[in-house]
Amino acid sequence: MTVLLLNASYEPLRVIALRRAIGLVFAGKVDLLESSDEHLLHTSGGDVYEAPVVVRLRRMVKVPFQSVAPLSRRAIEARDERRCQVVGCDRSGQTVDHVVPRSRGGAHEWTNVVLMCTRHNSHKGAHLLSELGWHLKREPSAPRGELVILARAGIRQPPPAWTPYLPGIAAA
């Protein structure tokens, strides 16, 4: 389970592990904003706590924000919602494909990589989409804003409790 970490100004900073969030709560470094009654934490002393879902730092931190997420398979899967990007295909995307093949000078960058199912990827090979008459569901682009935070964590759709704190993301 993951937890959304906000700065003191309520700006989303990153997604952290539940264990880290619990440590920050007990150390008094964060305020608990949202918790989950579905996930209960039991201590050895017999206490029961709701698991944190959104926490906010008590002190403002200045963090250099990366406007573009690093290119990784997990981030591509989050951006493409783990689906094949060829129009008309409803399969899950298992392979990362270069729109302009590297053998034809295509770069390994956000605007040139998409997820494809194995069938489409093997059929495409080193061809261009136009040579096969294929089209993409959407043009590949680098995630921006709150999407950078989610893409870095490999999260396709944030939990509903996060949406008030991520204004650029649609609710689940």
3D structure, described in words:
Helix content is 20%, strand content 24%. It is built from five helices and six strands. The longest helix is centred in the first third of the chain and has 9 residues, at 18-26.
How would you briefly describe this protein structure?
The protein is an alpha+beta fold and 172 residues long. It is built from five helices and six strands. Helix content is 20%, strand content 24%.
What would the average pLDDT be, to the nearest integer? Answer: 88
What is the H/E string?
EEHEEHEEHHH
Low-confidence stretches: none
- What's the Cα radius of gyration? 20 Å
Helix content: 10-25%
Net shape: elongated
Terminal CA distance? 17 Å
Tell me the number of strands.
6
Structural class: alpha+beta
Largest sheet: 4 strands, mixed
Strand order of the largest sheet: 2-1-4-3
As a percent range, the share of strand residues is 15-25%
Put simply, the count of helices is: 5
How does the SSE layout of this entry go?
Elements: E1 2-6, E2 12-17, H1 18-26, E3 30-42, E4 48-57, H2 73-79, E5 95-98, E6 113-116, H3 118-124, H4 129-132, H5 146-153
Parallel strand pairs: 1-4
Antiparallel strand pairs: 1-2, 3-4, 5-6
